[in-house]
């Protein structure tokens, strides 16, 4: 029987996300054994779908075939305690102290079931995520509630949800190299340094947290990772790179190891170059031994500096000669070595810019260029008595240099400050004769275009890197746009290679879900995937340069913790965002003129309250502890001022009053919840969602709901226990290693999803420790739907589809009738992940009401 969407009570209610509030439930008088029937779309007739079967299959990037992705640990728990949600076996007859029920599935489906009181409260979850074959099924309820007590209700409703919901990982937004079947560019920080050999571009990535700090690409295939040599040491941070066409010279500038040194690898075979006057170095030995880890063994290095001494800030090598130069800005010093023997040939003072990187470039004639405060200088005879033979002044914060390999008198320089562009300097004329990028970059407004460069880096610094390839094209590290731009000598952008460094802050505009944010970058993302299955996206705004000084702190960068934690376009058509500035939550307007306008601060969290969080309709929600109650509060949006600023009610009202009883899913104050605190969302059916993300202090339920104005739980779900693929919440009771558990709960229509990033969790299936990165999906009646995500414990050096790290900024949205979950990524895939949730429209629910000692038929 097919009934209209939104019909409730004793009739069908399609479990489809909708922005409409359903009609009130009609009153019904049910006598003993009288059956109230309901059947949703899909419970009778129709073809089958690819369901969430017992066998786990790995997704592929952009795969057209829907895939159910495994939970972190698919091992079921041991014998369940009384009141657990494992269903009893089919009964041959009706026992007086049971309620027997039967139902028929026309095809195999994934099912969850529960017992509900007449007022809609969930009394008992009978089972979760059980795959049942087509045919008739009979089960019994032993009259016990989830707490093990006998239910007092005379008449109850039995509901069985059945579906073939699938979770398809489509890829990531913001990474142009994350194509099907290949490893993407990925890094913890933006590119640190560049060097080129003909068609080969070498990319130094700095410290890259358990991944290689060296990457590369071929100019003929710029969207494919192709490193010329392999470097596997995860302790180092390769911050400088230079090449003479025979060997790649690499400078360690800080990682877990804080020592500084230079080493080299032959381009022909990747083997380390032996410097006869170098020294062997072991960065890490096996505990209690002198046996060095292979990846941390360096048989020959030069320019070694122990921890605490100045680190290199520039590296350049002669292609035709034998000289290698290393700069140390903190000491205003340049050291020159024999690039083959490793012998130190000279050491001299130079007016280097006090802060900088990529401060050196070697000209085609062997002369050395270096960056000063607002100038670049040219030196000759650098291995003997160096002499200055050229100088360009009047530059605006020179950040990086690249010599023209075909013309010794020309030099490319990236300028920060107000310039945010690259210029070519000609020693013969003393003038700049070419410019790359629009002068001023993104200054004044946020619209992103290929030629608007941005060199803003973390903690108020600036950074770029340059290299000239074999075709004379210039590669530019466009740092705060998170991309490498390849310019022709005439100034046209001919290639763009984009990826996001580690990002903990992501957001999606709930009213305009095509707007997806990573830190301060805004992408336009189509609902329909591209032809290869990946998300179709483009960078449209970079709001970082538009921030006024009052909103800038050490995190104001397009990586790590900076950025917008929420974005909402309200009824007045204007867009507002939340962001954290020096520990204070600010509300700002993202203006149509490309400017960021500060509006006001929001109430912060304290020992007894959570921080205010803006909802999609503009209301502010938070919670306050009050004795044995936790009051979820709301301040309604009442309108907007003449300048567009939101106006809220002067005081808050109580949305729901949650019992703070043992094992209940109220929020424990001070528990880590990601970047913005608990969201306290409302479902379309008028339920306030509460979530306890903590891993200690609660061995009961972690997800719950209460009706608006209510003081009781409508349902409690997601019990503590090892991750089992069925929505259990792993705590320290079963995993002593785990540090953080969940983050936030989200809603879309009747769908409720929470994130469980699980930092340092133990995969109980293989014993490995990592990050869980799971998402638990429930309905707004508390019944389990599915679990998806890919834990880091199942990956290796090659990221598997869906794998991510510290995914604690998730957003659940509807876009053009499709359901998506977006989330951040530490650096597994270098972008904002997108999952599509399929099959929601075909979910069905069978239900009937009855009393103990009877058998009822669900329809």
TrEMBL record:
Residues 73-94 are annotated as: Disordered. It comes from the Bacteria. NHL repeats lie at residues 466-490. Residues 78-91 have a biased composition (Pro residues). The keyword Repeat applies. PANTHER family: E3 UBIQUITIN-PROTEIN LIGASE NHLRC1-RELATED, PROTEIN LIN-41. This is FlgD Ig-like domain-containing protein. It comes from Rubrivivax rivuli.
């Amino acid at each position: 029987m097919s009934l209209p969407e939104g019909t409730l009570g004793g009739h069908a209610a399609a479990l489809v996300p909708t922005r409409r509030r359903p009609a009130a439930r009609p009153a019904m008088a049910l006598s003993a054994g009288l059956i109230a029937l309901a059947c949703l779309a899909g419970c009778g007739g129709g073809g089958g779908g690819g369901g969430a079967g017992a066998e786990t299959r790995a997704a592929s990037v952009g795969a057209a075939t829907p895939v159910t992705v495994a939970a972190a640990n698919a091992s079921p728990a041991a014998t369940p305690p009384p009141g657990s949600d494992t269903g009893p076996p089919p009964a041959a007859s009706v026992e007086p102290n049971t309620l027997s029920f039967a139902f028929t599935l026309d095809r195999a489906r994934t099912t969850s079931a529960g017992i509900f009181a007449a007022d809609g409260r969930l009394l008992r979850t009978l089972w979760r995520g059980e795959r049942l074959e087509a045919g008739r099924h009979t089960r019994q309820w032993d009259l016990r509630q989830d707490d093990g007590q006998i239910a007092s209700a005379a008449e109850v409703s039995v509901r069985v949800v059945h579906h073939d919901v699938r979770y398809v990982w489509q890829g990531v937004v913001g990474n142009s190299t994350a194509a099907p079947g290949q490893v993407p560019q990925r890094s913890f920080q933006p590119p640190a340094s560049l060097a080129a050999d003909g068609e080969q571009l070498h990319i130094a990535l700095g410290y890259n947290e358990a991944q290689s700090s060296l990457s590369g690409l071929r100019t003929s295939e710029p969207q494919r990772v192709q490193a010329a040599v392999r470097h596997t040491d995860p302790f180092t941070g390769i911050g400088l790179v230079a090449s003479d066409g025979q060997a790649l010279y690499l400078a360690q500038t800080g990682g877990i190891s804080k020592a500084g040194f230079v080493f080299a690898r032959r381009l022909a075979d990747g083997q380390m170059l032996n410097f006869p006057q170098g020294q062997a170095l072991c960065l890490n030995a096996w505990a209690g031994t002198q046996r060095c880890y292979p990846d941390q063994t360096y048989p020959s290095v030069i320019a070694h500096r122990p921890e605490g001494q100045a680190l290199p800030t520039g590296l350049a090598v002669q292609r035709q000669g034998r000289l290698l130069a290393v700069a140390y800005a903190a000491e205003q010093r340049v050291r020159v070595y024999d690039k083959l023997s490793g012998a130190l040939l000279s050491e001299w003072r130079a007016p280097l810019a006090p802060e900088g990187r990529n401060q050196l470039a070697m000209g085609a004639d062997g002369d050395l260029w270096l960056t000063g405060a607002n100038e670049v200088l040219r030196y000759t005879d650098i291995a003997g008595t160096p002499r200055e033979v050229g100088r360009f002044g009047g530059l605006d914060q020179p950040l990086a240099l690249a010599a023209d390999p075909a013309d010794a008198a020309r030099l490319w320089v990236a300028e920060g400050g107000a310039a945010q562009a690259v210029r070519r300097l000609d020693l013969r004329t003393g003038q700049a004769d070419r410019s790359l990028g629009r002068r001023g970059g993104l200054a004044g407004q946020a619209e992103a275009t290929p030629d608007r460069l941005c060199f803003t880096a973390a903690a108020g610094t600036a950074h770029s890197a340059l290299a000239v390839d074999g075709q004379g094209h210039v590669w530019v590290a466009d740092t705060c746009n998170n991309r490498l731009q390849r310019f022709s000598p005439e100034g046209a952008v001919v290639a763009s290679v984009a990826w996001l460094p580690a990002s903990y802050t992501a957001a999606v505009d709930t009213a305009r879900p095509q707007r997806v944010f990573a830190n301060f970058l805004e992408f336009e993302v189509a609902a329909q995937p591209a032809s290869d299955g990946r998300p179709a996206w483009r960078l449209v705004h970079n709001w970082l340069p538009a921030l006024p000084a009052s909103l800038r702190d050490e995190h104001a960068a397009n990586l790590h913790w900076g950025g917008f934690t929420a974005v909402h376009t309200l009824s007045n058509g204007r867009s507002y965002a939340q962001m954290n500035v020096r520990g204070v939550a600010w509300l700002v307007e993202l203006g149509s003129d490309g400017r960021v306008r500060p509006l006001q601060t929001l109430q912060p969290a304290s020992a007894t309250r959570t921080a205010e969080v803006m909802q999609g309709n503009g209301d502010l929600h938070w919670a306050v502890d009050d004795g044995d109650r936790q009051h979820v509060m709301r301040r309604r949006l009442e309108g907007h001022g003449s300048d567009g600023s939101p106006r809220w009610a002067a005081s808050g009202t109580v949305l729901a009053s949650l019992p703070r009883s043992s094992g209940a899913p109220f929020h424990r104050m001070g528990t880590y919840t990601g970047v913005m605190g608990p969201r306290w969302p409302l479902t379309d059916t008028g339920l306030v969602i509460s979530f306890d993300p903590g891993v200690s202090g609660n061995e009961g339920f972690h997800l719950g709901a209460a009706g608006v104005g209510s003081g009781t739980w409508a349902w409690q779900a997601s019990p503590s226990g090892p991750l089992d693929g069925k929505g259990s919440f792993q705590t320290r009771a079963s995993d002593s290693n785990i540090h953080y558990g969940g983050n936030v709960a989200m809603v879309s229509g009747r769908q409720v999803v929470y994130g469980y990033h699980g930092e340092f969790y133990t995969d109980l299936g293989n014993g490995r420790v990592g990050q869980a990165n799971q998402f638990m999906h429930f309905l707004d009646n508390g019944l389990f739907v599915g679990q998806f995500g890919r834990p880091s414990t199942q990956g290796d050096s090659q990221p598997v589809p869906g794998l991510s790290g510290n995914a604690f900024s998730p957003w659940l949205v509807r876009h053009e009738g499709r359901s998506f979950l977006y989330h951040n990524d530490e650096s597994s895939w270098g972008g904002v992940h997108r999952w599509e949730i399929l099959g929601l429209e075909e979910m069905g629910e069978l239900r009937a009401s009855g009393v103990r000692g009877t058998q009822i038929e669900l329809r």
